[in-house]
Give the backbone structure.
Amino acid sequence: MIQFFNVNLTLNKKPILRHITFTIGRGEFVYLIGPSGAGKSSILNLINFSLLPDSGTVIINKDSSAKIRFKQIPYIRRSLGVIFQDFKLLSDRNVFENVALSLRVQKKNRSEISKRVLKALTDVRLGHRRNQYPRDLSGGEQQRVAIARALINEPFILLADEPTGNLDPASALEILDLLEDINRRGTAILMATHNYSLLKKYPHRTLSIENGVLVNE
Amino acid sequence: MSFFFSLSESLRSMTKARMASILSITSISLTLLLIGGFVLTGLNLHQWITVVREKIEMEVFLETGLDEQKIDQVRARIKNTKGVKQINFISSENAARRFENEFGENVYEVLAFNPFPPSFIIMLEESYRSPQKIEELKKTLEALPDIDEVIYQKPLIDLIDHYLNLLYVGVIIICMVVIVIAIVLINNTIRLTIYARRDIIQIMRLVGATEGFIRRPFLFEGIFQGLIGSTFAALFLYYLSRIVEMFFYPDIVYTYHIFAAIVIFGILIGLISAFFSVGKYLRRV
């Protein structure tokens, strides 16, 4: 489902990733660890085709970076969920509208949007806060809204880029519990982090990257 | 659904980034005001010069001693010459009278005879009011029988032509420069409003929005800003023209086409600027 074959990436003439090869299977939970600037976010960006490799191949299900057409990319992204350290919520819309955006871009009708958004918010235990704005929520709650938005399309994988980086330890654990729960329901998770202490609570397969090179599995 | 979503997104954006929108609309208004002002000025100068040119006339002096039959033949030949719009006959007596009216002297008292030959005053067709064409017509007329001399106000016509060319070139250059400045200025201000919303572009891309879907609200926004800005400019110029017409210069020329063109240009410039500015962020994210 996600396969990297000898992937190399250069940005602004600087090598970012070198000879990266790995596979993530359906329903797996994988940590991607390494210091800041090691290349973790670049791997996530390659998976959602925000970046394309200079050489080597990235394969997402049946779509290969070598053959991808630009117009296909939005449709591939709908099968991926992404969350970030800074949540990336829109401050001028309420929780419901933030989550609904994923469906609005697919031109879904109003009743379907209502039904699915409420379900997604209930899944992250935020159904009662649907009319509030991001500024009224704690960091942990904002990340749960972002998770609801990422999951609303029932993606096969959730890409989490330092999802606990802006959170206090209690909220971080809460988010990790939620991700664990999501994974148990069948969604694969690839979580980039440099918070190694979190890994001990739920040990999973770990990809370790340093200076753009995968050092161990 | 998607149309209304795009529409509401664009209105939301314009109200959210109110200052940037006002800046954008103001810059569209001011630049179109400038362009429209130049076009109206150029149009009125052109109209004024056309009126002056209409008054250009040529005088064809006949040989002395021609009888009426001969004069009629010359009249027919001149009338049939290409470039002649209208002719008026001035007999020797009429010429003497005109002299007396202009200079206050009776030519018979001064010279004891009438030295003025009969002549035809020729009004020219519009296409024959340039220096080259007038000269061409002069030679044609001089080649006709029974014609002694053809004269016209060559220095005045050359002067008008010279200034007319300068005017055309000047207005075109100024308009081109202003249009380029307008495009750059409007493009930059619209880009600013889009820069302020790069977060939503990024999020929409991440959740799988197509390029067209992301672009549409910004295009609506560009159209709205262009429409509002250019309408202000067109209304201002229209009422300014009305005031000039009522109080200063009743012959001012202004057509509704100019105001419509300003509005269309404003909409187009808003649309095109938005299209390219969003494109830049779509490629970048």
In short: Chain B touches chain A through 19 residues (CB under 8 Å). The longest strand of chain B covers residues 84-90.
